[in-house]
Amino acid sequence: MAKRKKQSNNESTVLKVAFILSVMTSIGLLIALTLVFQSVEAEKTKKKAAEAKEKVALKKAANYNYISQTIQPMVGIGTIEERDEWNETENKEDVTSAKGEVESVEQAFEAFKISYPGLVPAGTDVNYVTVAKALSDRNKTLLNEKKQLQVQVAALNKQMVALRDSQRTDTANQFTDTQAKITTAVEDLATFRADRQATSAGIDAAKQKHTQALAAKDQEIANRDNQIADAQKRLDDQAENNLVTQLKARPKSERFEIPDGKITSVNEASGTVWINIGSTDDLKPLTTFSVYPTTQLGVMRGPEDIKGRIEVLKIIDGDFAECRIVEDSINDPILIGDQIYSPLWQRGISVHFALIGYFDIDGDGKSDRDRVKNIIRSAGGVIDAELSIDNSAEADAANLIREGGITVDTQYLVRGKTDTILNIDRQTYNRFETRAKDYNVESITINTLLNYAGYKNVKSSTGLGSGFDNETPEPLVKPTLPDEEKRNQLRFPPRRSENGGAF
Questions:
Q1: Which residue among 112, 131, 214, 484 is least packed, with the fewest CB closer than 10 Å?
Q2: Would the pLDDT of 463 be above 70?
Q3: Measured between alpha carbons, how far is 55 from 248 in angstroms, rounded to an integer?
Q4: End-to-end CA distance of the chain
Q5: HEC profile for 105-134?
Q6: CA distance 205 to 211
């Protein structure tokens, strides 16, 4: 019994030991597996890190390659097209950063290429290498040219030295000759002084007598100069007085009696007329004329005599021009043979004018000074003098304009509003008026001038001052004719003969 119990204890001990060994073995296997797993995970981590590092390296390499392929064409290696083809077909990496880095480089290269126009031979790519070579070649050319210029400068310097030496030789010879002449002169002077000393008393007396004679002669000449000056002044004053007298005796309005031309043909339907003056008479397009009846004896006698107005459209030839009818009356239409006239224009010569006052020809309260001057000059007229107000909207705030002067050629004094001028500078105004009267210049208001010149739309202005004509002739408005009446008014332009003349 005791033996069986002992055996049972031994078995129990064996089982415990086996269990302990089994447990320890399991623990060992678990530790071994844990170590193996950790080793595998570490390898995986290393592999991922290596792959990531390789990917970064590949990306860097791709970016470096992109940058390299971008820069290479700048030195003549490869092309941008090859870079782009590689990036699209072979490269699998992102090169965004490289593109950002080379953008400024590409911009600088483009700016570099356009900085050297014509330097690189045609057909050669412009890059840093070709430009550097071109610059080097150009420097060599410039150095050669510099050497040639240096040779030329040396030759010129040599010529200059030779010329200078030649001039020095000539100067030396001249100096020698001059010295000889001076020596001779000194000797002659010594001889002269010796002779003078011998006869000093007689010379002094003669000198005194000669001095007195010269003084008397100078006084005589001065007296004669004064007499001549007085006589010349009297002659000048007499000539001026005679001229003023002649001008004052000159009858006014001599041109008023003589028309400038006549109407040679009329086409009422087209509102066109033809006149017998042209390029030979220095007629200009846009010149306007007032029209008078063929039976009128003399023109510019009064606005009531004006039957219409015309404006030159085209110069046909030397004595023939086409005009448009600006105004006429259905009751008294413009006819063949009617006389035309403008105080702004004269056959073959320029009409001279003087302007005085503030001009408002359309009644809008604004200055028309420049407009008046343009109207006169466009017709070939000349403005000799001007005492006017500038183009300020308010006449009272305007400045006084003084230009030129009245001459013997001045024919018309054209008047505007003069009140402001009188307030600004009455003395200048009086001198201007006196000069016009002395030279017998015809005084005429701007409205009257433009009406007689055939200028349309001249309106009266109120308060234009002393001597200004506020009356404007009643406009001659051309009516609109019915078609059946136009046939009755139709007159045809002149036909041309075989030799080119009008008939």
A1: 484
A2: no
A3: 114
A4: 180
A5: HHHHHHHHHCCCCCCCCCCCCCCHHHHHHH
A6: 10
Q: What is the C-alpha to C-alpha distance for residues 419 and 463, in angstroms, rounded to an integer?
A: 9
Report the C-alpha gap between 169 and 426 in whole angstroms.
75
State how far the alpha carbon of 350 is from the alpha carbons of 61, 331, 430, in Å: 91, 35, 27
Beta bridge partners of 358: 417
Could you tell me which residues come within 8 angstroms of residue 413 by beta carbon, excluding any fewer than 6 positions away? 353, 354, 356, 406, 436, 441, 442, 443, 444
461 Ramachandran zone, left/alpha/beta (phi>0; psi -120 to 50): beta
Name the class of domain 343-472.
alpha beta
Distance CA 88, CA 98 (A): 15
- The dihedral through the CA atoms of 492, 496, 502, 503 has a sign that is negative
| Distance between CA atoms of residues 47 and 111, nearest Å | 48
364-412 pLDDT per residue, tens: 888 888 888 888 888 888 999 998 877 665 656 667 888 888 888 888 8
Question: Which element (helix H / strand E) includes 40?
Answer: helix 2-71
Give the start-to-end residue ranges of the domains of the chain: 19-112, 129-196, 199-249, 255-342+474-503, 343-472
Q: Among residues 18, 26, 84, 481, which one has the least CA distance to residue 271?
A: 481
User: Strand pairing of 261-267 and 339-341?
Assistant: antiparallel
